Amino acid sequence: MTDTDTPPPEPTVKPARRPLRDRISIVWVVPLLALAVVIAIAWQSYADRGPLIEIAFDNASGVRANNTELRFRDVRVGLVEDVAFADGLGKVLVKVRLDQAVAPYVDEDARFWVVRPQVTTQGVSGLGTVLSGVYIEGLWDDRPGETVTRIDGLNDAPLERVGQSGLRLTMRAADGAALTENTPILYRGVEVGRVGTPVISEDGSTSEAEAVIFEPHDRLIDSATRFWDTSGFSLSLGAGGAAVNFSSLASLVSGGITFDTMLSGGTPPDPGAQFTVYPEESEARASIFSSDDAEALTISVLFDGNISGLSAGAPVELNGLRIGQVESLGGRVDEDDPGDSTVRLAATLAIQPARLGLEGDDGPEAALDFLRGQVREGLRARLATASILTGGLKVELVEVPDAPAAELSEPEDAPPVLPTTDSEIADVSASAEGVFERINALPVEEVMGEAITLMRNANTLIASDDTRAIPGNVNTLLSDAGAVPPRLDATLAELQTLIAQINEDALATRLADLLEEAAEAASGVSTASEGVPELVARLEGIAANAERVDLDVLAEDLAVFLENTGTLLAQDDTRALPGQLNETLAEVALVLEQLRDGGVVDNAVATLDSARIAADTFAEAGGDLPGFIAEARAVLARANTTLEGYQVSGGLGRDARTALREVEAAARAVASLARAIERNPDSLIRGR
Amino acid sequence: MDLPQGLTTARARGLVGCTRCTRPSPAGTRTCPRCGSPLRSRDPKSLQKVWAWWLVGLGCYIPANLYPMLETRTLVSSQSDTIVGGAIDLASHGNIGVAIIILIASVLIPVGKFVILAGLAIGVRHGPQISDHARHVLYEVVEYIGRWSMIDVFVVAILSSLVQLQALATITPGWASLFFALSVIFTMLAAQSFDSRLIWDTAQDAPKNDKP
């Protein structure tokens, strides 16, 4: 197109340059594209690659290169690229490729630890890592900083959980308290914090541990907060009784620390502030008064004499309010001031101005002013009993209204001296001594003498024939007065007499004959009836019983009486009031005499006589018994004869058997009578 | 001149064969009267295409061997194997047969394809070292066997779709499987781009390939 105007020269025919498109295949685009993609990807990954940081661990158990992840809030934010040793093999360097996104936040404050499965008393953690393998957990704040290149990893998980912030404190174990790793800090039973791994403090005197109080509970802590150990259980034995304390089963197993704010007006603590963990709540509460931070006013008191029981740490109370404690004790001989050469107990007291409501820098001075004024008004120090059980003493500041005028003496180079007044010591041993003294003062000798006299009188009384003659009467009297001994005793005695009389009447002999006859009769009819031997047996029983009644009962009665008398004499009242008893006994004797003189005995004798008559009647009845038996024998004999006579004739056999049955019934009646007498001989006399 | 006796090329007869429907047309015909495909006696850019695809294929084959082919994640462990590593692993566990199959399908065949294709392309330009017929046979073999390289990719695809037992065991294809598949595809394209008729031209004279 371009050379149409000019006459064409002989064209040098050159083959036209074919377009590039014809010479180069379009397919070349593909490798170029691939190359471009590769380069782009390489660049991209290089550009996206986060920084490589080195975390130094003591050991790297379970950490594997290209496998172990770095996680933040359980999201993977990096990968371990290499595990190597630091120079000198002292540490393991885990090189972690961070994700670009989190790299700015991983600054000097970042903390790293390896999450491994752990089984503790607090529970099981990191269980997932059993299967998945360990991972490295990172914790950092949300403020970007300069990315670290090398940082030390923690051996254990830090106290705060991810996303949880709190107040860091340093716990220091007091004597007797123990800090345990991962111990929960409980407040009203709620876990508000945690104790880290305890280490021995630098001076080696105790153990220290980091602790964290999670937000928002950290505002519960101020400078007046005291911590104490609630692990295990405590058994306290005091004036208020015994108490067993343990806060929860969990803390029993794994330990626990709790706290309380003892005073108001504490200041919020600085992070890392040091607190002491006391072994017991009481100690923690007591410690508020010995806090080192508050400046105490030191005064001294001179007590006359050295009274044991006061010790350093004893409370100082003003009107029952504890305002300080005894700092130190010592003796002092000061011939100038008190004016003599006795050794006095010099107690140095530390008064907490804060407890008097006087706070601030000039607290001690203000407290001294206050005391100075109060001493003029009559404030005095004295010793008082702090505990009756232990005999411990405390120092009390009391107002003594009519105290002799005194001033708070203020020596140049010594603490001010507070005047004293008489101690008020409720001494247990003194009280006990007083009790014993009173006991001693009792007229024991006279009492004993009177008691002996009384015994002798009583002996005479008892030994007198009259008394012996009427033991049953006395029994009756006592039963009437106290309704104690039954009349049976007397009745039995009478029955004995009765039996004796029966014996005199040779009833037994007759009875024996009768029994022999009955035995014959029984043997005669033994083929027809077997009930008669039983009758015999019962009759023999009667005889045996009759023989068994003897004087033992009487003796027993006497013994009972003597015992009663003895009991009476043994009573405390009797001892306490020997004179009265004497009188009473005299009255008793009088009564007995009256009884003897009066008709009561006669009445009793009459009663016995009537009983005797009744017995005589029975004896007569007993006398009739042989007749009855004889009759029975005759009947039996007749029956026997009849039986013999009509042995062959069976028709009369039934009549004979009927007769025999009647005899048997009669015999049974006798037996039952005998049994009744045996069971209740009284009924014979009383008729029921 | 190695042509078997009595055989001559279409080009020598002034014909151009349709590569699609095989109908011979007189030389110079632009499109096949039967199927309408563009007709060319020779593809002048064939070698370029071959080399282009070959390069991409080789490029893909490198990461296919460096990256893991399979990532097996079981309850207690996760394992990722490259092609060769997996074969060695299998062999060490006694599955020598399977290992050999994998090695043949994943290493021997692809590498052989690269070598053969390169050899054919070089032979077209610089003169053959072996007979035309042998070259043609090689080309046929490459064409035929190329698709079988995909067997590895199929194994990965089947395993990773079957073994998905959540936490117990999962198998996921690694990056290598993608690259391997791409490599196979590109080598197949390279083999296809190779205009086998060029083999015969070198048999007759020095390569004067052009002239559409």
- Which descriptor suits the 3D outline of chain A? elongated
Q: Give, in order, the helices and strands of chain B.
A: EEHEEHHHHEHH
* Spatial shape of chain B: elongated
Strand arrangement within the widest β-sheet of chain B reads 4-3-5
Mean pLDDT of chain B: 81
Helix count of chain B, per DSSP?
Answer: 7
As a whole number of angstroms, the C-alpha radius of gyration of chain A is: 58 Å
Strand order of the largest sheet of chain A: 5-8-2-3-4-1-9
Describe, in plain words, how this protein is organized in 3D.
The complex is a heterodimer of chains A (688) and B (212). Chain A is α/β, with parallel strands linked by helices. Helix content of chain A is 42%, strand content 22%. Chain A is built from 19 helices and 25 strands. A seven-stranded mixed sheet of chain A has the order 5-8-2-3-4-1-9. In chain A, helix 11 packs across helix 17 (599-645). Chain A is elongated and about 200 Å long. The termini of chain A are far apart. In chain A, 23% of the residues are buried. Chain B has 212 residues and is mainly alpha-helical. Chain B has helices at residues 46-66, 83-92, 96-126, 132-145, 151-162, 175-193, 197-204; strands at 15-17, 24-26, 70-74, 78-81, 169-173. In chain B, the strands form two sheets. A three-stranded antiparallel sheet of chain B has the order 4-3-5. A two-stranded antiparallel sheet of chain B has the order 1-2. In chain B, strand 3 and strand 4 form a beta hairpin. In chain B, helix 3 (96-126) packs across helix 4 and helix 3 (96-126) packs parallel to helix 6. Chain B is elongated and about 70 Å long. Mean pLDDT of chain B is 81; it is low at 206-212. The interface between A and B is medium-sized, with 11 and 14 residues.
